[in-house]
Amino acid sequence: MKRIIFTLILAFATITLSAQTLERMQWFNEPESWEINGGTLTMDVTPQSDYWRISHYGFTVDDAPFLYTLRGGEFEVKVKISGDYKVRFDQAGLMLRIDKENYIKAGIEFVDGKYNLSTVVTHHTSDWSVIELDKPVDFMWIKAVRRLDAVEIFYSFDDKKYTMMRNCWLEDNTPVMVGMMAACPDGNGFKATFTNFEIKHLPDARRLEWLKKNQ
Length: 215
What we know:
Elements: H1 2-13, E1 26-28, E2 33-37, E3 40-44, E4 51-53, E5 60-62, E6 66-71, E7 74-83, E8 90-99, E9 102-111, E10 114-123, E11 125-132, E12 140-147, E13 150-156, E14 163-169, E15 176-183, E16 191-202, H2 205-213
Antiparallel strand pairs: 1-6, 2-3, 3-16, 4-5, 6-15, 7-12, 7-16, 8-9, 8-15, 9-10, 10-11, 12-13, 13-14
């Protein structure tokens, strides 16, 4: 019986949570104009909005649009993003957020006329890492995998080959707001589009280890 239960748990771990739809998600800082159509989210990003805390610049902002669902435990999330980036720091991507002092945002950021893979990790204060792309891209997939107290961030140009761009800490056993974020710190807004948003449940690694030892 224990072996059957363990097998069912592993099978469930491979199922994508297709019941989650964009329409059931919630807004944090809802933008003035947005649309959900056939699994695609399009938003006019709020002008002069961003997420950042204290370090380097000396200010804190927490006012960019973020469409999210709440998830506990471990999971994998990915989305395809594109944007009509116009001015410095225009950005779009995934966000994992516990509260105003603990969050991760990762995606494309437009800096000095170039496209960059960008990750901001905030634990009271923010840090920022970038990988400059050789040329502009029409779209990009961003994926995050939350395992225990770590989050791995990946990017892909084709949704097949994924390359890790960041590994960072995030408190485990804590519910996380996860979803799609865009920001426009310097400009008057731009249009961002998100498609193929998908969350897949991952069973808790510690529990799986216990089950293996106690079959």
